[in-house]
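Supplementary Methods. Inverse-folding protocol.

Structures were first reduced to a discrete structure-token string of length 154. This string, shown here, constituted the complete conditioning input.
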């Protein structure tokens, strides 16, 4: 095989691989294109969710946004996988521990980031309308420290 044919074969393989990657690429979207719906029953009522990428309830990577109204709270809970949260707008308070305590925790503002390692008990609240982006590895699951706080059981 000549050097030219090897080069052409390599070019075809690389080009084909890049075309396959382009076919797998999700279409870019703007915030106004997100489709919001009520958050699942595992979260307290009042929030809305928009899935950006993947399926949070299946194996694999996911990205979602959570829109919360003023005063929204998520009692102490944990997840089987690490949860990554970026504040898009508003303010998001996060604390670590077994009980929601608004005197503790840290306030994250737009652009702020928080990470809750797998199985670490944490809680959150907002003091104004807030949107956060959550990403991690699915399936997404939530276990409330106090089972009475689980809204899906009510």
């Amino acid at each position: 095989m000549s050097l030219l044919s090897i080069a052409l074969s390599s070019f075809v393989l690389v080009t084909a691989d890049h075309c396959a990657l382009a076919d797998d690429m999700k279409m870019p979207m703007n915030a106004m294109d997100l489709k919001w719906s009520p958050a699942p029953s595992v979260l307290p009522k009042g929030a809305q969710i928009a899935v950006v990428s993947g399926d949070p309830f299946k194996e694999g990577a996911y990205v979602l946004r959570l829109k919360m109204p003023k005063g929204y709270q998520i009692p102490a809970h944990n997840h089987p996988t690490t949860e990554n949260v970026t504040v898009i707008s508003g303010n998001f308070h996060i604390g670590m521990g077994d009980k929601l305590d608004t005197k503790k925790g840290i306030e994250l503002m737009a652009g702020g980031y928080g990470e809750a390692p797998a199985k670490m008990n944490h809680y959150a609240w907002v003091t104004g309308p807030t949107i956060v982006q959550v990403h991690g590895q699915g399936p997404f699951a939530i276990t409330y420290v106090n089972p009475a706080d689980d809204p899906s059981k009510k």
